[in-house]
Structure formats: structure tokens, C-alpha cells
Write a structure and sequence with these properties.
The protein is an alpha/beta fold and 686 residues long. It has 3 domains: 110-303, polyphosphate kinase like (2-Layer Sandwich); 331-498, Endonuclease, Chain A (2-Layer Sandwich); 505-679, Endonuclease Chain A (Endonuclease, Chain A, 2-Layer Sandwich), CATH 3.30.870. It is built from 21 helices and 27 strands. The strands form 4 sheets. Strands 14, 18, 19, 20, 21, 23, 24, 25, 26 and 27 form a 10-stranded mixed beta sheet that branches. The N and C termini lie far apart (62 Å).
Length: 686
Amino acid sequence: MPEPSNILARYPLQGRDAGILAFNLRVLSWAERPEVPLLERLRYLCIVSSNLDEFFEVRAEPHLSAWRAGTDAAGGMRRLMADAHELVAQQYGIFNDVLQPAMAAEHMRIVSHLERTEAQRRWVRDYFLREVKPLLVPVALDPAHPFPLVANKSLNFIVQLKGQDAFGRANEIAIVKVPRVLPRVLRMPDRVAGRGETLFVMLSSVIRAHLADLFPGRQVGDFSHFRVTRDSDLSVDEDEVKNLRTALRQELHQRHYGQAVRVEVSSACPEPLAEFLLRQFNLPPEALFKVQGPVNLVRLQQLIQLVHRPEWLFAPYQASYPVQLVRGEPLFQRLKQGDVLIHLPFESFDGVIDFLRQAVHDPQVLAIKQTIYRTGNDSRMMDLLIEAQRRGKEVTAVVELKARFDEEANINWAEGLEQAGAQVVYGVVGLKTHAKMLLITRREGRQLRRYGHLSTGNYNPRTAALYTDLSYLTADARLTADMDQLFVHLASHSRLPRMQRMLLAPFTLHRQMLAKINAVAQAARRGQGGRIIAKMNALTDQPLIEALLRAGEAGARIDLIVRGACMLPAQLTKNIRVRSIIGRFLEHSRVFYFRAGTDEQLWLSSADWMNRNMLRRVETAWPVTDPALRRRIIDECLLACLHDARDAWVLGEGGIYRDVVPAGAAPGPGAQAALMARYRAPAPTE
């Protein structure tokens, strides 16, 4: 990171880690909103737990390494842990004081051992003996039985034993590892739950009630369930390995056993056992989290799946087929008339699937090239690429093997594509290929013509129904030529020619974004007017932040719509406003609007304004020049967010976000709700 500039001496940067945790506090607020259906509130609680797991897996290790090395003089580890403790305390407070009473009011409860009736205890015991005990192998610790290797985020118990074992030894500590195959939430049968009640039992409660059965002849003393979170960054030196795919597959297993970064225990865990765990995992006291409830709230997703009450869930949303398309029409002919915009998830991803499907079945299509970053486990697009190869088309897939937590899925897709005969490449050593591109080459008479798809989001049908993104279909010859040059570069590492329309990271994107901000600042300084509206997921790049601050001081009006971490200083200039939209769908689109005097530009991009996206990834940005599409994007993605009076948060003094809906006030119109109403598919007629 560059040295602080003069402007940052006046406007010090916010911390990125604090920004990530603050984002999760905003997400957590949805679990408290009484107008949100009950099980959806519980789902938001689970989302925060999942996000917090990933935060520790990715962000904590550098701080703990500095603490272990004695170089954490600034106290970064303690600040991170203190902020995380505050978030976790709020999370469990909402779970215990808000959600569980709300569930009980609907005759739905998670029952502990002491709350269970005799009949319920018999059912729990029968389940333990039949389904659980046969899979548990308790390990009593001694020199021949060292502390077992505990997997990342797995459920375990630590037990203090009294008396002597079968050999007359007083080994006092035992560890019980709980297999992942066991469900963490159990629904009691109605016959034992009681009339009109829906009761659940946590697996940890089942085991806790019957720990003595695991240690015959010994007396169980103190105990606690626990869970350890481990650093999950894969350490593969791309310059040294001969086959990146093979190296990553070998490394994936080790991810479950990386350096420990956090230990969660029950609130009643005795200090001696907690200290024993901290010593075992070489962690400071700040990394111990005592929680009043399950150590893994993510698993409460299983409870949601076990309840069949549609009124406790969001009403299903049926996205419309893209409004610029007609289902079944030849898409290549349509694109000759002009570009097509698809606003996900309000319009369905089916338009993109159909684009690829028509290419696969069109005998005039000769080649298909696609980047694969996060496709998930939905196989529709991969199946189509494999089918294209079988039909004799040239298929090239640029697979990003290092997409964090999607590595295994991408390795499997790469192998499947290769087995079908497709050309599979892995991009550029040292850079992640984060660009989202699909390029079709078609023979039309005596010439070849290209058709392209670019997107701010992934080729993942599941998340396309949950994330807001912009998909862009085009037959623009200059833009598709740029796409083709980029595919050739990713495959051959040949030198890129000058792009005609597209900006690329790590080559031109950063420099050009800075130049556009500076042009706005100069126009504002000359009294010609300057305006920036930028929507992204995170803003952490220091040079871009400095440029924005200078533009604001020059008089440019700047609105930043940043969903997650924003390091822009809390002491904002009067011309800069920052807001975050947290809604039913995850805001994910990247849209950048610049007006310098009379010059207006609108860009879409795969990249956030982060240093990694600008300098360590292959990213794309492309201009939108069609007047109708520009108006639509500005209206739906930018102005709608700036006028959101329901789901928006505004950054204020001290880096604190304020809900735009005052306490006790009725919310106003929300951007996502308005777009859902605009694009909702009509109900089928009988």
C-alpha cells in the first residue's frame, strides 16, 4: 500500500476488516425486522454466520501471525477480535432474545434436555443409540493418543473425565469428533412433540445429554462442545508447480487443517478447558468465543428446510423473461438490431442460457469461448459446452481454478470439459481471471461474425436468482473483437493489442478509472460541473479513494453505492455521499457513471474498486453507448438506489452507518421491491 498522501492525512482511511464486519451488522439488521417473514429472519442470521466464518478463514491469519511473531505493535489482532466479539454478541442476542421468542409465539421451539418431557427424552435417547453413538469414537488423550486433528468448522466435544481408565490410568481429557454426515438439527415427530407444537433438537444437545454413554466406567465431569475455524487460503506457488490443477487438488485436502484462527465454545465452558484448547491451537485469549447457543448457527439452515410453512418465507418471485427478448426468437438476428441488457434477478438468467443453447444447436456456429469463475454445481451451462464440443464446435474454456471455495467444483468442470475434447486453459500465472465473457463465432455467408455476452456477475444460474447483476449481449464488432483478443491472450499469453472499446485489468482499467475521476475533478474546478455515481461491492483501493477525495474537494458531486467494505474516510467532504443497499437480493452489479462538463460516460465492469481487482486479476469494463440502455441502467441501478427509502444505509461520522428508516418509522419505497414489481412475470392463465 502506498504511503499516506497529504489528503489522507486529513481524511484517514477506514479499516477494511472493520468495514467487512460493519457490512455484516447491516445484514444482521434484517433478522430483527418484524415485517420480514420469520424463517427469512433466521436465514439472515445464518448468512451472517457464514460470512463471519469466511471472514476468519480469509482475513484473520495475517493478524494472528503478527501476534505470534511479536510484531503486532499496532494491536491489529486485538481490534479485529474485539469487533468480531461485538458482532457475535449481537448475533446471539438476536437469536436468543428476538428470534427464539418469535418462534415460540408460533409454537416452534428448539428444546434443550432440561425442557424435554420424558417421552421426548426417550425419543432422543433412542435416536442417539441408533443413529449417533455407532459413529462416535471418543479419544482419551495420553502420550499414545495425542490431540486428534480437528477439521475446519467441525463439531467436537472436549470432556473432562474422572476416575481411571481400563488400564488404571487417570487420563483426564477426551475429545469426541462429530461426523459431518450427521444432521445438526432434528425435528421431533409430531407424536412426541405435543399437540400443535413443532419441536427441534440440536445434535449437540443430543450428544451432550448422553456423553456418559461414551465413557463406561468413567465419570464425566466438565465438558463443552467446540468448533475451530482455520485459515483456508491455499498456498500454491504457481511459478513452481508443473500442473496447477493437480497441485490445487492436492492442496484442497489441507484446507481443512490449516492454522487455527478462532475457537468457539459454549458459554458454560469452564476456564481450564477453554485454556487447554487455546494452548492446543496456539491462540490468544481474544480468539476464544463463548457463545450462548449452538457454536455453528449456519447449520440452522437445516431447520428452515424442515419447516413447511410458506407464510414464514418470502413469497416466491418469478422473474420475467428478458423484456428485450422474445422466448424462442433467433437471438443472433435480434442482436443485429442492437445490444440487449438483462437485469438479474428481476429478469431471468434463461436469456443467457438460451443464448448459449442456440449457439450449441446452430450449425453455423463454429466456435464458443467462455470464462468460468463461479458456476456452482448447476450443470446446465457446462453440459451445453460439452454438447457443443460433441457437435464438432471449437470450445475454449478459461477456467479459474483459484476461485476461493469454488476450486474443487472448477477442477471437476475442467476435467469434464477436457474429457469431452474442449480446450481448457487456466489463464495467467499469478492473476485470477475474474472477467465474465462468452463469445460466439458464427459463419454468415462469406464472413465470420462474433456475438458476445459480458456480465458483472458469474455464470451461475443459482446465484443469478439471488444477486443483482447486469448481463450484456452484443454484436458490436469492436467490442467482440476486444473479447476475442483477450481470449487469445489468456490462452497464449501473447501481447495484447490496443483495445478498441474495452478496459482491462491489470493493464488499463486502473489507470483509466483514475483518469476519468480526475477529468471530472478538472471540470468541476473549472466550473463546468462534475458528477460521479459509482456502484460496487467494495471500495478499498487507496489511489482511487484519493482521487475521489480530490474530486470532491474540487466541487464534483459524488455518490458512492458500496454494498460492503468501504475504506473512504468517515470525515467525508461535503460533496461525497456513501450509501449501502442491503435487501432481499445481494447487490452485486458494478456500474460507473462519469460526467465531466458535457462529456458523459457509463461503464459496466466485472471489477470492484479494490487493489486486487485492479492489479492482480484479469477484469473487464465496457462502455454502454446505446441511449435507451444508458437511461435504463442509470434509472434502475443508480437513481433507484440513491432514492431507496427502505433498504439503504448512509455512512456518517466516525464510520458509522445509519439506517435511512428512523426507528419506529414506516419504511418508504425500496429499489429492489420496485424492480420486482416492474419485472415480475405475469401469473399463468388457466
